[in-house]
Amino acid sequence: MIKIVTIIGARPQIIKAAALSRAISNHFQKEITEVIVHTGQHYDDNMSQVFIDELGIPQPNYNLKVGSGSHGEQTAQMIIGIETILIKIKPDFLVLYGDTNSTLAGAIAAAKIHIPIVHIEAGLRSFNKAMPEEINRIMCDHASTLLFSPTKTGFNNLVKEGFNPNNKAPFSADNPGIFHCGDVMYDNSLYFKEISKQNSTILNDNELTEGKFILSTIHRNNNTDDPVRLNAIFSSLHNIALMDNTTIVIPLHPRTSKLLDKNLNKELLSSVKANDNIKIIEPVSFLDMIALESNCKMIVTDSGGVQKEAYYFNKPCIILRSETEWVEIVEQSAAIIADANENKIMKSFNELINKDNLKFPLLFGDGKAAEFICKTMLHLK
Ligand code: UD1
Ligand code: UDP
User: Fold this and answer.
1) What is the pLDDT of residues 102-153, one digit of tens each?
2) 120 contact partners, CB below 8 Å, separation of at least 6
3) What residues have CB less than 8 Å from 337, skipping those under 6 apart?
4) Catalytic site residue 219?
5) 219, 238, 253, 379: which is the annotated catalytic residue?
6) Probe target for ligand 1 pocket from 68, 289, 319, with the most ligand atoms within 8 Å of CB
7) What is the reported pLDDT for 233?
8) pLDDT of 162-177, one tens digit each?
9) For residue 95, how far is its CA from the centre of ligand 1 (angstroms)?
């Protein structure tokens, strides 16, 4: 029997954690005990609890209730809370997901007291250190003992940074093991697709017709906090909705909702509000999100997770960033990087809307990444 502590905190990592908890519950109940620590980075019900309830994640054993704050403040409080719990529980592994401040805090706390770190979604790089997430990923990877990369590109990035693919067990922070295992979010997309079909009423609730609407999400800090970028994005969405007479549904992250009044110019804000084709709604549950993703005609997003889910549900995607960690979907021409540039966004829209031969070959594993991770942890302990 091994004991793991899993850190969750922000929306995407709560959802990712469902895959591992499900694999443990279905296949490894006698071999793996999981203790879940929620940092409280996200705390609104629709950013946190809804996923725990809906996706079958065990209720967290601890909630540090750290909440929002500056990077330093938020991360520091998490480190203190996580360290205390790790000292008490003494797990065999600390499991971390992705690239948020909760990930970084877990990495710093565990590395200093020599608890082996398992990093799920290792090796992803934007090569843009202005992103807080890029700092978090690099620091977490370099403190980890077992690194699980969802893509071949991620695995290769690790090798380029000096990780030795020929390292042999026993692994440690000084002799880490790197693995290419597929994406736990692909596991989740496959598993929850049918459940979403049976349970979600989001299309009816919002009077959306299958194949006739565009889905958009915006939350990346360099888009929300920069008025030029935020205006360019909303102006593009407004114009697409008018030009194409298409409904655009935008489940808006609270970070963005709180900044619309401040950062959008008044004229654009009132045009957007008066545009019946634009539906700005509260963040939705994962089952509802899957229903939106699998029934829309296109996705426009700056989210890492949502751009990848666009690919999983065979939808074209406009990426509202200057680069992506998920380069495979751009290489397949299923997604276009348009940055927050109005011309590029409109050009990408016209290009993608007229393409009927998009291809979505399987690139993200076999839907069993979480099982592979559990087996590897057990085998190597
Ligand atoms: C964080 C992650 C980002 C990830 C995103 C997923 C970091 C540095 N960033 O960004 O990588 O893509 O989560 O959603 O960790 N807020 C609420 N209610 C909540 C949570 C947040 O109102 O439940 C608001 C607060 O005003 C807060 C702001 O959103 O200040 C930003 O939240 P924060 O967790 O700091 O960063 P995100 O932008 O969510
Ligand atoms: N998501 C959701 N409801 C929403 C918006 C996103 O369930 O209203 C899901 C989405 O399907 C994906 C994850 O949240 O699985 C992505 O999280 P987010 O965009 O917040 O962060 P990122 O992936 O960019 O770090």
Assistant:
1) 999 999 999 999 999 999 999 999 999 999 999 999 999 999 999 999 999 9
2) 16, 20, 95, 96, 97, 98, 148, 184, 373
3) 319, 321, 322, 323, 324, 330
4) yes
5) 219
6) 68
7) 98
8) 999 999 999 999 999 9
9) 21
